[in-house]
Structures are given as structure tokens and as C-alpha cells.
Amino acid sequence: MLILLFLLAAGAASSFAASPQNEQITVEIVIGMKQAGMNDEIILSLIESAEAVYFDTSVESVTVMKQAGLSDSVIGAIFQRQSKVTASAMPQGSLFLVRQGVSELELAPKQIQNSFVKSKSNTAQEIITNGGLTAGVYAGAGLISHLATMGALGRGALSMISGGIVAGVGMLGSNTPTVQGFNFEILPGKSATLLIVTGDAEFSIPLAPFHDGSYATAEPLLLRLTVSEKDGLRILSSEKVKVKGGDEPQQQSLGPKQFTLVEVSIAKTADTVWVKAQNLSIGEYALAFRAGDQFLPQAFDFRVVAQ
Prior knowledge:
This protein is an alpha+beta fold. 29% of the residues lie in helices and 34% in strands.
């Protein structure tokens, strides 16, 4: 999931205002409108009338919107418009399905969240065992606030933020410009609501609902999730990183991204991805899509239980 933080120039916002039907409107464009001096009435009208929108409505993105000065009415309109897009994104007959024998269940996409936890631990498992992920997800103002005061509202910040440095690390000041910790990609909740039984399963994911084409070219992966009992979260991946602040914040990886991959058979056509898994054991899983070294924002979670 990308966290949108940089501000568009006033000229770009004016250009969009002149022709709202010709461009997909996003959170950064709305922020650009605000910075260009547009009032709420105009912004609300453009949000409603835009032909295409893609709004990040994660907890972290709301923090960005509030710090950029967007009003509650504008943020509310963003949520309402995005909910309409989500509701209409599934063409009739294009269902995400998991099949086991003659049984057929519908999968629901879930939004992957990003969390950064400041820590000198050697392994992510220490954080998972001891707790601390919740502060990273839900206390999102800490690092962003410091970055803003350090003049980091630019594309340099975007690349770092999109890697998951979004939360609660608190003390990144001019005297301590570098922090070390772990990026986590997570799904909320200790358990998925969709239950299937142990054994083989086949998944079919139509690509039509994903209008930007990114899922058609991404690599589908079936992951076994790690459950954080203390935080009530499920971890897709973790990565040890070092973040350097300043006018151009930078993130340096201190090790490979860690996740538990389940071996599957994959077949793809122009409009559908089929994933076949064998001998699934009890646990929490997610079918995710990877582009490069990043997972795309939507994943499909399920829980395997005993027959």
C-alpha cells in the first residue's frame, strides 16, 4: 500500500481543476488543491465529479491528510467516494473464489497495512513476541510530524514512506537523524473470517476488478502468516531497515524481506489467475501479489482449520 505524502504544485492542481474528467484524482492531488488555495466547496465538487479516483484511505493516509490541513468534510468525501469505487469495482460474475472439491467460497480482498517499529532487536520475531506493532500502526503522527518539520514533504519522503515508515517511532530529530527498526506488512485481526479445511485448494482471481493493470503483471504468492497474539495482527512480511532523516529521507535495507512462502502451482491467462495449493495445514494464510520487492495493496486472507 503507498502512503501519499508529497504535495503537488499549484499549477498541477489548477490543471486538474480545469479538466477533472481527464485524470485520476488521488489524495496527493486533493492536497495539491488545498495548497493551491482552493476552498472546500470546489474540492468537494471535484471529488464528486471526477470520472476516476484512487484514494488511499488507510490510517496512515488519514494522518497525512490531517497534517496537510484537509477538513473533516473533505476527508469524509474522500472516504465516501472511495467506498463507492470499492463497491462497484467487482464486475458481476467476476468473483474471487476458493474451491475445495465441490465446495466453493468467495474470497474478499483486504488492505495490507504498513508499520515501522523503531527497535535495535536483531530479529523481527522479538518484536512480534513482545508486542509493539500496534503502536506502529495506529500512532502514525510521530515520524510524519518530525519529517514535516524537517522539510521532508517531497518525493524523497514518498519513496521512504511507501516502504512502510509510517508510524510511532517518535524521536527522529535533527540531533538523531538516523533510526533503526523493522518494516512490517500486516493484516489486521488475529484470524481471517473465511475458513477452509486442511488439504488441497484452488483459487481463481479475476483481474478485471483491478483497473490499473498492476495485478496482471505482478507475481501471485501464497504466504503463511505469522500471528502476533499481543497485538492482534497478522504479519505478511518483515524487513530490517535503517532510516536517515533530513531534507531527503532515505531508507536502507539491512537484510532481505522475510516471509513464509507456500509452494503452489500457478496458471495465468489475460483475465484470470489460478493458484493451486496442496496439503494446506492449519494456520493463517494470504494470497498476495508482488511487484518487484513490494506487495500490492490488496491481499486475500483465509484460515485453514481441521476437517
